Amino acid sequence: MYFLLSPAKSLNEKDNVPINVADQYSQPALIEAACELMKTLKQKDPIDLMQLMKISDKIAQLNSERNQAWCWSKTVPFTIDTAKPAVYLFDGDVYTGLDVYDMKKQTVEYLNTHVGILSGLYGLLKPLDLILPYRLEMGTKLANNKGDNLYNFWDKQIAELINKRIPTTDNVLINLASNEYFKSVDKKTLNAKVITPRFEDEKNGKFKVISFYAKKARGLMVKYAADNQLTSAEQLKDFNLAGYYYCPELSDDKTWTFRRDENITA
Predict the structure, then answer these.
(1) For the chain, which terminal residue's Cβ has fewer other Cβ atoms within 10 angstroms, N or C?
(2) Do 260 and 245 meet the contact criterion of CB atoms below 8 Å apart?
(3) CB distance 41 to 67 below 8 Å
């Protein structure tokens, strides 16, 4: 069983990694491709980035500075002195649910072998891959030597890497990524059964997907699996954090639905 998550726009650059997992820090597997993309990004000034990514002047300026600070001879390979493990750098709703800063070492080690984080810049990351702060969403229409966007650029590379990392014991991929990011995984290349959990919350007597809660629930599900050291997808049907429960009557072999009552909003 292997989980896929999206990254986050917001980053936690200030908090130190709370446990010693230095022996498992690694370089992104697709770092050469990331360097290729960065060469293109370094040519963009703040105004270009504003238009390309539809971001504010302040955010564009920050990321222009980040891009220009990326120096091949000095920053690659990354070190813990200048970079940070991906799972500790990404912030936002999914990572709030994951709550990695309060995890024990054994739990983080489970994440590192069972979770992949999709990335516009890095392709696919292990949670403990060292990375630098960046901004490049997968849906960005960044022209490159392989096409007009990042989907063209990554092509089969991400799916091929997933195939190498997914446990052969069950070959099940739990897709907890957004549509924008999961689209980067070439389905024809992928050798796995894909299950996509769907999280619904009750509001005004009706159940529906509420983005904020659904994102947090994705992180909670991975946390549940890591805390309990789960080994099979079937065990996820017992997921019950924050009041969620599995609904077999609303599920099929590709989509598993979990619901939560209106009076529970944790």
Answers:
(1) C
(2) yes
(3) yes
